[in-house]
Specification:
This protein has 189 residues and is an alpha/beta fold. The protein has a single domain, classed as Peptidyl-tRNA hydrolase (Rossmann fold). The protein contains six helices and seven strands; from the N terminus they run E-H-E-E-E-H-E-E-H-E-H-H-H. Strands 2-3-4-1-5-7-6 form a seven-stranded mixed sheet. Strand 3 and strand 4 form a beta hairpin. Helix 1 packs across helix 5 and helix 2 packs parallel to helix 3. The longest helix is centred in the C-terminal third of the chain and has 21 residues. The protein is globular and about 45 Å long.
């Protein structure tokens, strides 16, 4: 069973903010499959389904970003999910807007959601799909990541949806090294 986690913050005030890019892409993926992520358990919204003959849980932690790991840990324990079967979708300030990068593991890079997941799982060895949100050094980092996308930025993100949907489909069927080779190459990595 695979667990795909989209990181974000709950509440209307955080919708369409840069930090909620994980929610945006997991919602879009679910919509493309005519699936609703609407069951609440362990302070998370989730759905358990079968896609491409693979059992998968799509999860949106409802704790705030800094406590995402507590929610992820409860799902991992309850559904007995192997750490190797987790993929976390998160924003990345250090990449240009709309760039994607798959990683097998690594440090949090200062991302509090990833930091809390690593703390709760007691490992940094979980897969990530990082999506670039750029960085504006003229704006305080907290204000920037919690800021809404501009119309142009939103358009760029919308244009990335099909690629991410295909990537997630491939993730359910493909060896992760091959997946990284396929998608990281597309983004010039």
């Amino acid at each position: 069973m695979k667990l795909i986690v989209g990181l974000g913050n709950p509440g209307k005030e955080y919708e369409n903010t840069r930090h909620n890019i994980g929610f945006i892409f997991i919602d879009n993926y679910a919509k493309s499959k005519n699936i609703d992520i609407n069951t609440e358990k362990f302070n998370g919204l989730y759905t358990k389904t079968t896609i491409n003959n693979e059992q998968v849980i799509l999860l949106k932690p409802l704790s705030y970003m800094n406590l995402s790991g507590e929610v992820v840990k409860k799902y991992v324990d309850y559904f007995k999910i192997n750490i190797n079967d987790i993929l976390v979708i998160n924003d990345d300030l250090d990449m240009d807007l709309g760039r994607i990068r798959l990683r097998l593991s690594g440090s949090s890079g200062g991302h509090n959601g990833l930091k809390n997941i690593a703390l709760n799982l007691n490992t940094e060895n979980f897969k990530r799909l990082k999506i670039g949100i750029s960085n504006n050094k003229n704006i305080d980092t907290k204000d920037y990541v919690l800021g809404k996308f501009t119309r142009e930025e939103k358009e760029k993100i919308n244009n990335l949806c099909n690629t991410v949907n295909n990537l997630l489909d491939d993730y359910l069927e493909m060896n992760f090294d091959i997946l990284m080779g396929k998608y990281n190459k597309k983004t010039g990595e």
